[in-house]
Amino acid sequence: TEYLSISGHGNAVKSAYAGKVAFVGSNAQLGNYVIIDIGLDVKLWYCFLGETYVKTGDIIAMGEIIGTTSTIPLRDDGADGFAFIFSYLDYIVAPEFIFESDFSVIQ
């Protein structure tokens, strides 16, 4: 899991890729979260969002605002941000190559 710390509460969080919203939910483990299916068995998870602006089944574009940052409860420093999870075939994988691209998921 990659935790992105952002200065400020309520900053816009953008989708890193185009895709279909597979699920929007909220629970104690992930907070408010959005899962985007970008095809080829790849899903992007945006967790601990303050607000979510999409719903299950929505088709979204790369760069579309899907929610806002919030306090990440798993961090000891109480930083604002969100947790970004990348999964392939339902296995969690490290998302480093996404962060090496020119596109930022944070506005």
What oligomeric assembly is this protein in?
single chain
Radius of gyration: 13 Å
* Secondary structure tally: strands: 10
Distance between the termini: 20 Å
Helix/strand-derived category reads mainly beta
The fraction of residues in strands falls at over 45%
Shape: globular
Order of helices and strands: EEEEEEEEEEH
Low-confidence stretches: 103-107
Please estimate the helix content: under 10%
Q: Mean of residue pLDDT?
A: 81
Largest sheet: 8 strands, antiparallel
Describe this protein with a few key phrases:
single chain, 107 residues, mainly beta, eight-stranded antiparallel β-sheet, two-stranded antiparallel ribbon, disordered C terminus
Explain what the structure shows.
- The chain has one helix spanning 96-99; strands at 2-5, 12-14, 19-27, 31-39, 42-49, 59-60, 65-68, 70-71, 80-88, 91-93.
- A hairpin with a 2-residue loop joins strand 4 and strand 5.
- With 107 residues, it is mostly beta strands.
- Strands 1, 3, 4, 5, 6, 8, 9 and 10 form an eight-stranded antiparallel sheet that branches. A two-stranded antiparallel ribbon has the order 2-7.
- The model is unreliable at 103-107 (pLDDT under 50).
- The longest helix has 4 residues, at 96-99.
List the helices and strands and how they pair.
Blueprint: E1 2-5, E2 12-14, E3 19-27, E4 31-39, E5 42-49, E6 59-60, E7 65-68, E8 70-71, E9 80-88, E10 91-93, H1 96-99
